[in-house]
Every structure is written in C-alpha cells, then in structure tokens.
Amino acid sequence: MRLLAVDAATEHCSVALWSDGRWVERSADSGKAHAEQLLGMVVEVLAEGEVALAGLDAIAASIGPGAFTGVRVSVAVAQGLAFGAGLRVLAVSTLEALALQALSDPAPQTPSGAIAVLDARMQEVYWGCFAADAEQGVIATSAPRVSPPEAVMPPPGRLVGVGRGFAAYPALGRLPGVELRPGADAARPRARDFARLGALKFALGQALDPADLQPVYLRDKIAYTEAERAAR
Asked: Residue 118's beta-bridge partner residues?
C-alpha cells in the first residue's frame, strides 16, 4: 500500500509516506508558514520514496481539533492534492493519532485505554478517551470535547495520558487512574500515526471523496474580546 499523511493542526507539522513497508517522513516546528512547509515536505517525501502523487492509494489528513488555521491547512492541502491526482482521502483526528501513539508504546502493563489532551489555549483543552482496537487501531470511548482543564473527567479504568495539554496543565496528570509516562506530556501528533490509522480506515472502506473532508474544530471562538480579557 502507498499512503501519504499530512498534519498541520498544531504548531508542529509533519508528513509521512508509507510505501510498501517503507516509511519516509518529514516534520518541522513552524509559525505561520504551514502551507508552504507542508507542501515542501510532501514533495520531499514523494521524491525520496520514488512515488508519484498519482501512484498513491489515498491521502490521510489531520482534521483537528487543533489550531484553526492549521486544521484548515491540513484539510485544504489534502483536498488539493487528492483532487489533482484523482485520489480518495481519509479523515483522522489529532486525538486519535495521539491515542494510537500512546497505546502503541510498549509498557510492563497494558492500560485499559488512553486519554489524549491538547492545549486549546484560552484556558481550555481538547480531549478524548480511546481504547485499542485490532481493526481500527483505536476507538473512542468518550466523545471528543473542549473544556476547561478542571472539567476533564476520564472514565474509570487505568488510562495512559498523552499530549501537550498535560504540560500546559500539570494537574491533569494527577487525575485518578491516569498514568503519565516520561515524555508523554511533550507528545505531539505525528504524520506516521495518521498514516497508520488511515491505512486501517482504508481497509475498512472509510475513504472519502475529497469534497466530503470536513475539519473538526469543537468550538467556534478563537480569541477573547477585549472586554472578556479584562474580565478574566
């Protein structure tokens, strides 16, 4: 299988190519040049992997939640590439990708699931809970949501925590049942995990027409007004 994955939903953007058992990857921390960086990395991984865009089976795209501009870039780049090459797309959330990363990490004891948390700014976090699944990689055990960190309430069980929301709000790592492994609070979404989940979705017949790819924001407000900032 040949699958390209693109992610620019956070301050870290990445691209991965899975080509017949071989990985080619690029990543960068960026400011506001996500689109240019992402397209440049796409060109690089396809060249290194010796794969033409039209030779791909599909493109996996990060659909958020995350930074509004970054999520739009991920979706738009995937749509543009797919439309141009006549490809289908696969929608993968940032929280799914983080959960897969955590649940793929070998440990002495297997947790019952993962809680993925991203810093959503404005004193809020994006979060969701997941369990490992042989067919889908991960399945959601709670609806993804945005909330103040003190409103995060994971279900009972032993959960491994992952994502930079834990670094922004360290108290989340002390929630009952949540285990935070070394470095997990610095974990960021990786294109490799989007590709892995995308391949599973492709096998399950979940590929979409590019026009049907939709971003997931979880909220429609990106900044406080001056009056709201003053009140806070």
From this structure: 126
